[in-house]
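As a warm-up, study this chain.
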Amino acid sequence: MLWLLAASAGAQAPGPVGDGLRGQYYDGEQFERLMLVRRDPTVDFDWGHGEPAPGLPTEHFSVRWLGWLVVPTTGLYRFQMSVDDGMRVWLNDRVLLNEWRDQSRREYTVSVPLTAGVAYRLRVDYYQDILDTRARLRWALPGGAAGPVPVATRYLFTEKPKLPAEARPVAAPAKPAAVAKPRPAVIPPARAALVSGPRGRAAASLPAPPPAAPAAPASVSGPAPTATERVAALAEGQEVTLPEVYFDQGQARLLPAARAGLDSLARALTARPDLRLEVQGHTDNVGSAELNRQLSQQRAETVCLYLTAHGVAAGQLRPVGYGGAQPVADNADPAQRPRNRRVVLRRL
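Now compare it with the structure written out below.
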């Protein structure tokens, strides 16, 4: 599988040195109870039948690694995921590998062109069911003859690194017009196919923010579909963010602007009793991770209560809170942070 994530030639001058990834360890296979947060140098673990850390169970646990990846040179990288049981990998909010199911040791690979000097947002999810426990993410560098090796700590960052400014091309003297500054290619947000395991687990993709729409002439095909129309058209496993359903920080009370959109959604769902949805609550990352998870659960339940009060059957809805674990905007930017306090619907 090959995705054109970036396309340019040449290597980046030496930059900052990484410190690893932020590892969040949970009791439960679906990130139910946060037990430990630590810095891991890389994702290259074979715990066998042992515990991943003191105080954690040897089975039925999950881990989420978050951070940033900066590659040493531009070219085609081959990533290898060695796993027992389930594992999935995102780069800049796009799923690279997704094998979220109970399984004995398996290896999966994907080839990805990457550009030196660009910080790529990295997320790796893992869960362990029973027996052997393995979670390894390795790579082979461009042009390297050696097989996959662990991603070295110096290329992984718990916080987004400050990288050297890009070089600007010099305009040729014969051309009066200035040459535009090159822009590094990034991974465009996209929905990935979801994989369900034999026990019915669904691999939830990381939600991506809607791209900003540039000014353009009116389309002859008519206006873009509303969120309610997109919900009605969802296939199994697909999801959509409700753009009008946001919350004040620390609150689970619906804002007045959300009611009109939810009224429309309620009418659509009562007309489609076959639609079953997971109602996902999400928060920013301000404060305690566990309190954020509880708050996101309350927000999801608030939406479900509103919909059921307007005629939707309770069996069509399943509220789930993910806290601040799946951001779609930069939490460090106060102007963008509210976008993470959102509600997402995924068809079951």
